[in-house]
Every structure is written in structure tokens, then in C-alpha cells.
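Cont'd.
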Amino acid sequence: AQTVTQSQPEMSVQEAETVTLSCTYDTSESNYYLFWYKQPPSRQMILVIRQEAYKQQNATENRFSVNFQKAAKSFSLKISDSQLGDTAMYFCAFIWVASYDKVIFGPGTSLSVIP
Amino acid sequence: DAGVTQSPTHLIKTRGQQVTLRCSPKSGHDTVSWYQQALGQGPQFIFQYYEEEERQRGNFPDRFSGHQFPNYSSELNVNALLLGDSALYLCASSLMEGGRMFFGEGSRLTVL
């Protein structure tokens, strides 16, 4: 069974600074995707960034980038130039390609950006 | 283009009652998945519907059932409600052939 672990229940960062959220996962599969989702107080889950397991290059999306270490099964999210709007719950998530979009979520990290 | 819409946004029920939650997928999407998110936890997969059939199911009892209609909208039904069913219920839509999944804002269920 696939599992996703986020060891940081809460984090805070000063506005304009950089913060890294950690995630590890466990799977025996080789073909999968990894995601970071953001859930603000509005409750809607929003996709932040996506990484295909077969790609060695780390995904980037504007101020968001990942450090994907496949052998270590690690998938951290770096947020640069943090903004107040980044305050939210962040969930690391896993999809096995053959599982028809059954997403396995981690427990989440609550990020607060301090002005 | 409307995204994923869910109704109702909030509701309160008592133990033993039954509830129906509704979801309209993003335009063009044919697959709907339901997730339960307890307070302070990550979402847990309940089940997924495609072509009006349940394609796969998570570790939830038979009290949780669903339906998908020809227009791809979906319902989640929970019978014999328990206090532990209190949660945010999220609906997500996508295309079965692949692509990005979009989530609704959820239905907050409180069971008293």
C-alpha cells in the first residue's frame, strides 16, 4: 500500500522569505505522479505543482519548486518570496498511474506567512 | 466556465439520519471522485465514478454509496450517520483519459 508522510504539522515563515515543506512516501510502484496541493481557508483544494516519477528534472512553477529524490522517496516543496496569500494547508499527494486518479494524501502541513 | 460545484455547502444531521451530497463536475469532465476530509487530516478516497459506474472504492463501509448521472453529475449518500462521519466531503472531477483533477469547495457535514 502507498503511504504519504508529512513530518511538519505546522510551519511559519516571514513574508518574502523562503520555506521548504517536507514529504516522504512509500511505494513499490515505479510509474506514479507526485503533487503538492494547497488548501486555503476557502477549503478548495488547489494544485500547486506536479512531478512525474520518470522525470529526473525537478518541476518548477513560478515561486514554487520541488526537490524530488526518487531513491530516497522524498518530495519537498520550496516556496520562494513567500506571500501572505500562501498561508494555507499544504498536502503532499501521490497517484499510481494505474489507479485511475485515486489520490493518496499526506496529513498536511499548516503554513503561516507572517507579515 | 464553471468549475466543480458542490451542494449543500454546510449541513447538520443527527445520528442515524441519512444525507445526500451533490456534485457537478467541471465542464467536459467525465469522472467524479469523492473524498472525506476529517478535521485536521488529509482527504481520504471514498470512491470514483465513470460512465455511471463505480470504478474503484476506498476503505469505507457500505453505508457510503454513490451514483453518477448521464450528465456526469454525482451524488454521495451516507446512511445511518455516525458522529465520526462529521467531515468535509470533497468532490473532484477529471477526464478518465488523464489530465488534471479539479476539486470543489466541499460540503461540511456535522453529525450531532
